């Protein structure tokens, strides 16, 4: 009886995850910016890295080790430093990316490893996923509850980040114009830094 899944509670969990996990943040804004600056196909490895890193956070939350990790002196500061450092590096490359019609050897898109690093070090991910994970109970049996939540939220991590990546598609044509490209890339880079600052300060 305890293994029964409350399927009627899945929809509210999905809506909650969309509202909290799907809101603008370092990873989501970076995907829009990277897809716009470098194109969707070159950004796919970065997308996979972000999804993988964020899923690691999900599993850490599900395993109940989030609080223990963050209780280790300095670990929160390390995560913030890693996230901020990578964001600043990525923002610089996005802001200085050439128009899509004029690729250069130095205009490489962010990598799978970079995406994984940001996914794990993203301060918003730890807070948002923990909040969503605790927002509902899908089964009376704790093991079943955790397993179903991991499946549902892992799927939402994929969907949310793919949608944000695709949000960069309408901007891509504008980036073939050198002047518009410079303005848009700098705007997106600034938004990325701002989203990270809000996540950190929040």
What does this structure look like?
- Helices cover 71% and strands 0% of the residues.
- It has 202 residues and is an all-alpha fold.
- It has one domain.
- The radius of gyration is 18 Å and the shape is globular.
- The protein starts with 9 loop residues before the first helix and ends with a helix.
- The mean pLDDT is 80.
- InterPro entries: LeuE-type.
- This is Threonine/homoserine/homoserine lactone efflux protein.
The tally of beta strands, per DSSP, is 0
Name the structural class: mainly alpha
Percent of residues in helical segments?
A: over 70%
Rg over CA atoms:
18 Å
Biggest sheet details = none
Distance between the termini: 40 Å
Net shape: globular
Count of discrete alpha- or pi-helical segments spanning 4 or more residues: 9
Beta content comes to under 5%
Unreliable parts? none
Write down the domain tally: 1
Instruction: Return the string of H and E elements.
Output: HHHHHHHHH
| Average predicted confidence as pLDDT | 80
Keywords: Cell membrane, Membrane, Transmembrane, Transmembrane helix
Subcellular location: Cell membrane
GO molecular function, one term: amino acid transmembrane transporter activity
Membrane topology: Multi-pass membrane protein
């Amino acid at each position: 009886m305890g293994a029964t899944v409350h399927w009627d509670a899945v929809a509210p969990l999905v809506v909650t995850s969309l509202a909290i996990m799907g809101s603008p943040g370092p990873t989501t804004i970076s995907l829009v910016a990277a897809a716009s600056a470098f194109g969707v196909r070159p950004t796919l490895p970065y997308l996979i890295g972000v999804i993988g890193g964020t899923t690691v956070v999900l599993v850490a939350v599900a395993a109940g080790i989030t609080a223990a990790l963050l209780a280790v002196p300095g670990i929160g500061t390390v995560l913030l430093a890693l996230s901020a450092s990578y964001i600043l590096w990525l923002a610089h490359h996005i802001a200085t990316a050439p128009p899509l019609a004029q690729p250069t050897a130095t205009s490489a898109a962010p990598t799978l490893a970079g995406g994984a690093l940001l996914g794990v070090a993203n301060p918003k991910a730890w807070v948002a996923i923990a909040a969503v994970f605790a927002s509902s109970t899908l089964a009376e049996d704790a093991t079943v509850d955790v397993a179903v939540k991991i499946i549902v939220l892992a799927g939402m991590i994929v969907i949310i980040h793919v949608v944000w990546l695709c949000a960069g598609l309408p901007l891509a044509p504008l980036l073939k114009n050198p002047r518009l490209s410079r303005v848009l890339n700098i705007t997106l880079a600034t938004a990325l830094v701002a989203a990270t600052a809000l996540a950190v300060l929040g």
